[in-house]
Amino acid sequence: MTGLQRDPRGEVGETGAVIQEPTDAAISRAAELLRAGGLVAFPTETVYGLGADAASPAAVRRLYEIKGRPADHPVIVHLGDAALMPEWATEVPESAARLAEACWPGPLTLVLRRRSHVSDAITGGLDTVALRVPDQPVARALLLAFGGGVAAPSANRFGRVSPTTAADVVADLGAALSADVDVVLDGGPCRVGVESTIVDCARLDQPHARPAILRVGGVSREQVEELLGHTVDVRTGGETRAPGTLDFHYAPNARVVLVADEHLASRAAAEIAAGQRVGVLASKPPDFLDDAVVVVGTPADADEYARTLYRNLRDADEHGLDVVLAVVPADVGIGAAVADRLRRAARRDARR
Ligand code: TXA
Ligand code: MG
User: Fold this and answer.
1) Each residue of 18-37: b (16+ CB within 10 Å) or e?
2) Ligand that comes closest to the CA of residue 45
3) Which pLDDT tens digit goes with each residue over 10-37?
4) Helix or strand or coil: residue 317?
5) Ligand 1 site, residue 306, Cβ cutoff 6 A
């Protein structure tokens, strides 16, 4: 990336955005900016978020504009402490309380019935609100300094791969951020690397109703089931207006093709023969791959796969690759979240 200034004094880079070291002073200034209706991109343990005061519809509207996100897509409200939940939700069912107690701060988002003051700009007009207490020191310091709820989608342009470093945020949004009112706090690379798991705990008062997973992410389905003591439905099919459920979400510019281990070498050869620049993302790429193949990533396990996934997909684009052949990890634990993102990326490409 050229022209990007990383300046702890808060000087403006050529792109117009300010990347700042998360000093105490920078965090209090960022909280002030939020209070004044500005936008603050901040690290979380999952991905970077672009935050606005959730109580300010004007600030949230600007957030949507900058992201290029349709207004009817609801956004997560980030809190510094679980004790603030009742300010946003009318009721916290026992299951939600149990998940919050066990997983917060952490990569879990709870969908609950909203209080009437919660703006339609946040909920996309739904009668629910999504809440999360992130587990990242800069995020928590910012949220506690601000005191209220911070509406924050992932800090990428709508439909793009989520950012896991401050530089990724600026690469996606820099030109749209304004030097006067916006800041990007740099907390280094994200520890989890894929978004939070969303569990819908609204409407549990209806007969036979159970919590359901709307997006698999940093907390595994197995963990959720163990904490609740029963199985949960995974409803990621898209009946809610969740951008994470759209086919083209999470996709880089390069085509993503899911390949079984044993077909990697032959598929790579076929793509190369067709004139494609080929990358491979697999725990153990075979050593008999064509020299022309770029090894995009060799994650040792599912955690590393998740942590490096979006970085690797961005690298594939930076290398100008046409296609990424990905061997999907096993559908358990955080591997399920990686598999979900890769399948969505690949589904988009099946239609191109
Ligand atoms: O890890 C994360 O969750 C990151 C970090 C920044 O916290 N945030 C994130 O936000 O992924 P975003 O906006 O990219 O995705 C939020 C998801 C969307 O799929 C949205 O539809 C869903 O949460 N969501 C928000 N409010 C909802 C609600 N009331 N009911 C159902 N889904 C909701
Ligand atoms: Mg997103």
Assistant:
1) bbbbbeeebbebbbebbbee
2) 1
3) 444 554 558 999 999 999 999 999 999 9
4) helix
5) no
